[in-house]
Amino acid sequence: MLSKKTIYLAQPRGFCAGVERAILIVEEALKKYGAPIYVRHEIIHNAYVVKDFESRGVVFINQLDKVPKGAILIFSAHGVSKAVRYEADERQFQVFDATCPLVAKVHAEVVSLKERGFQIIMIGHRGHPEVEGTMGQVDSSIHLIEHVPDVDQLTFDKDELLAYVTQTTLSVDETQEITAALIKKYPQIHAPKRQDICYATQNRQDAVKAMIPHVDIVIVVGSQNSSNSKRLQELASSLQVPAFLVDDPSQIKSEWFKSVKNIGVTAGASAPESLTSEIIDAINSRYRGSVVPMPGIEETISFSLPKGLLKAA
Ligand code: SF4
């Protein structure tokens, strides 16, 4: 018989306030206007959620010329550049903006810094839609760096008016290393009043750190293109615990659990709790384990819907 396992469940895990709001915006738009509803980019980075919406008539597009004139268009939680907003206006779509308010805060910061004459360094991952949206708030004066060695490549003058902002879903520890290198090279650099990495990213990474001493392996529920889920996997691996990112129970492999007694389970901010439950059930059906919820922060943050959908909701 297979040996019993104990599953430690991270707290907090799964949906954050920005993801809940984005999903609710699509739900309410579907209710109010009916299909088709167009969404620019995946509303959130989760394959299960996207597939479910597609089956109900939501069309995910990357180019606005795929959207018929006058259609309902939703911007994803990752935010969009100014150019995308102008194009949507020109094409006369009815737009609902699901940009997470914490991403929108970074957008406002970038615009204000540019107006005040700063050169802005953005710390983030090239090609991620949030980074494209944030950098696209201004038409110049913003420069992307991804890793500590990139700081060496910067050629600003020692007295340049400089500031930095970050993507909201980065590794807290790696970002601290990058900002430390920036401050060392440019002591005058202006930092955000409060860090841009969001509460949900920070809390989920802290919860993984708290779980690590108890477990031999970590399963992260989330999609491969989910930045914050990837960071949870990398964090566990960097703490010498094997970690696997899974989208659904079919991706779980028996060989991961050989000589493993204690299993940690967490979920990225875009992964529904129903998937986490399915994954726990799949592990339990094989090993008849017990589930131990870890103590941790109870999040109470929520964001309101855009005005046009508030009434409908
Ligand atoms: Fe907003 Fe953070 Fe959630 Fe991203 S992870 S949607 S920034 S709350």
Structure in a nutshell:
This protein has 313 residues and is α/β, with parallel strands linked by helices. The protein is built from eleven helices and twelve strands.
Report what the structure shows.
The protein is α/β, with parallel strands linked by helices and 313 residues long. It has three domains: 6-15 and 199-293, 4-hydroxy-3-methylbut-2-enyl diphosphate reductase, catalytic domain (Cobalt-precorrin-4 Transmethylase, domain 1, 3-Layer(aba) Sandwich); 17-99, Rossmann fold (3-Layer(aba) Sandwich); 102-185, 3-Layer(aba) Sandwich (Cobalt-precorrin-4 Transmethylase, domain 1), CATH 3.40.1010. The protein contains eleven helices and twelve strands. The chain has a five-stranded parallel beta sheet, with helices on both faces. Helix 4 (101-115) packs parallel to helix 5 (129-135). It is flat and about 60 Å long. The termini are far apart. 41% of the residues are buried. The mean pLDDT is 96. Residues 16-19, 77, 100, 102-103, 168-169, 198, 200-201, 228, 269 line the site of iron/sulfur cluster (SF4).
